[in-house]
Design a protein that fits this description.
By secondary structure, the chain is α+β, with helices and mostly antiparallel strands. The chain has two domains: about 35 residues; about 190 residues, Muramoyl-pentapeptide Carboxypeptidase, domain 2 (2-Layer Sandwich), CATH 3.30.1380.10. Helix content is about 45%, strand content about 10%. It contains ten helices and eight strands. A four-stranded antiparallel beta sheet has the order 5-6-8-7.
Length: about 270
């Protein structure tokens, strides 16, 4: 009799413990489902990184998740990987994503109009730029491309030349290392108005026009003021990237960087 009671008690205890564990697991599963609903770009493999990064930097969970996905919990150029979508408008090239030395984008064309001699771009980007350049002329302003596609070797020479005059930390704030330059995609342009030095493009009426209208043609200001910790580069009001009209409008309307867009809607 005594043994029977012990067995019954043990069995009931087992059922109670199993029920508690089951409910806890259900709660954890629901919690995970809620996280994925709120943050579709949440990656379970980075769970501990999200928590640690959020605590260390006092950020919202949303921003912490985005920043970790971008790679910002590591120093720039650390854990870098070869980018994907090499011949897609959504390609990302930054201090965590590089293109191979021999990568050449498809559909490069000579940007013979509204540009310096020898500039090339992907055709889709150049056509959109021409539309934009023609429209801004209606307001008695002018745009000119001073830099477009750059090969690995060109960027290597440019970067090494800067190192002759500035420290690497300083150079890294304004110039990309070879393989990490967005110009290598053939979708990025540096512009001026043909009169004012590009370093002073921000004081021109053309820049004011670009702030209000560039997205309508599929271009974004790639390295905005105040976003240096995300992009890794100082403010460059002359540097624009073609991403297509839909993406450009979202980035413009929400005042975010391409990194923040990419890791919310493309890489998740």
């Amino acid at each position: 009799m005594k043994n029977t009671i012990i067995i019954i008690i043990f069995f009931i205890s087992f059922l109670i413990i199993s029920l508690i564990i089951f409910k806890q697991n259900q709660k954890e599963m629901q919690k995970q489902e809620d996280i994925y609903t709120i943050y579709p770009f949440y990656k379970e493999k980075y769970q501990n990184d999200y928590i640690n990064y959020q605590k260390k930097n006092n950020l919202s969970m949303r921003q912490a998740i985005l920043n970790v996905n971008i790679g910002l919990n590591h120093p720039f150029y650390e854990n870098a990987k070869e980018t994907t979508y090499n011949n897609d408008l959504t390609i990302i090239v930054n201090k965590y994503n590089y293109v191979s030395k021999d990568f050449i984008p498809n559909n490069l064309v000579s940007a013979s109009e509204y540009s310096k001699k020898g500039v090339t771009l992907q055709e889709i980007a150049y056509k959109s730029f021409l539309e934009m350049a023609h429209d801004i002329e209606k307001d008695n302003m002018h745009l000119r491309i001073i830099s477009g596609y750059r090969s690995y070797s060109y960027q290597e020479k440019l970067y090494n030349n800067y190192l002759k005059y500035d420290s690497q930390d300083l150079v890294d704030s304004y110039s990309a290392r070879p393989g990490y330059s967005e110009h290598h995609t053939g979708l990025a342009i540096d512009i001026d108005n043909g009169i004012t030095d590009y370093n002073r493009f921000h004081i021109t009426q053309e820049f004011s026009w670009m702030k209000e209208n560039a997205y309508k043609y599929g271009f974004i200001l790639r390295y905005p003021l105040g976003k240096e910790k995300i992009t890794g580069y100082k403010y460059e009001p002359w540097h624009y990237r073609y991403v297509g009209k839909d993406i450009a409008q979202y980035i413009h309307d929400n005042d975010i960087t391409y990194e923040e867009y990419y890791y919310q809607f493309i890489d998740y």
